[in-house]
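Sanity check record (used in CI):
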Amino acid sequence: MDAILKGFRAQIDVKGKLSEFYAYRYIKHLEAEHIIEEVEWRDTDGRPDFEFLYNGKKYLMECKNLRNKIYKRPPSYMVEIQRTRDSKQGLETRRYRVDHFDILAVCLFNQTQKWDYVFIRSKDLERWQEHPEYLEKMQRVPMTIEGLWKKDLIEILNSFEG
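Expected output for PD(D/E)XK endonuclease domain-containing protein:
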């Protein structure tokens, strides 16, 4: 524990894994309620954190933590969405393609001290201007959840249907 407390990178890694763990518990609860099926929590580089079925359709979800900093104008939280490691391919490969996952789950712990989440469809996230098939690394998350962002995963899943 002392090693984690003295290591900035270790603390970030632990918080990342905890945010996945609490998201998994949330999704497993939905599975126990027979709302979602076939939940898989992955820990594999290059693959989204979660895969599950909802109404017979497969969804991929990536889980990220809010940053400690906020944007000043307009006031909003920020989340960094990029891979931990870069591959040796030409284009910067830490960025996610828009179609790499369907849903982004953002853990609010770093700002609220609670393991709560907000959700958005990947296609609704900001795009990288130079290559619009990729997502922008830093994304704004409103402090008051509204619009495309939802507090309920099922509400996001239902938005794919309509």
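The CA atoms of residues 45 and 83 lie 8 Å apart. If this sentence no longer matches the regenerated tokens, the check is flagged for review.
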